[in-house]
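Feature request, filed as a ticket because there's no other form

It would be nice if the structure record came with a short human-readable summary line next to the tokens. Right now we just get the raw output. Example of a typical job, pasted below so the devs can see what we mean:
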Amino acid sequence: MYAYILGKVDSYGDGYIVVEAAGVGYYINVSNFTVAKLGRAGETVKIYTYLAVREDDMSLYGFYSEEERRMFLRLITVSGVGPKMAIGILSAADVNTLATSIISGDTKALSKVKGIGKKTAERIIVELKENMGEETTLLSAGVSFAPESDAMIEEALELLTSLGVSRTEAYTLVATCKKDARNVNELVMMVLKRLDK
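Raw output as currently delivered:
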């Protein structure tokens, strides 16, 4: 119903922001990241929105970027994950970190979110992993993966996690170092050097 709302920030707090547009104050449920980016009273903001409609409730959810909204829409397709839980997940990790956790299968990172147990974390990974490409996930690293490099990446990830590096951190560093490495050993050494800094 609403693609976005353009208006002035009236007030904000933990998990919400009120935006006044055309004389109407919209109470919008948001993540901590959206509050941090848009929570400045009196400033004009553009906030992307999603209207959740249930039999007994209509709630508006807002996002500082299209990427955050897309991640929210993916999350609520997962069985057992509603809008409130999705906002909670987005409050615990930024979009890139969350996407990396999902693609790398890091259930521990997802389980740290309040209200999410191991089973829900596993369900999120299973249901979303396939439709989240590495290119989308790692835009901030400026990296895209060639299909032929998948085996090398996976081998490097296995080696690094066996050395005690978290899978999420290993995945991000492998993505960053991949373009400069000719083989698995070089890739692992590059990542370990970065971890020592």
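Something like this underneath would help us a lot:
The two ends are 49 Å apart (CA to CA).
Residues 137-149 have pLDDT under 50 and may be disordered.
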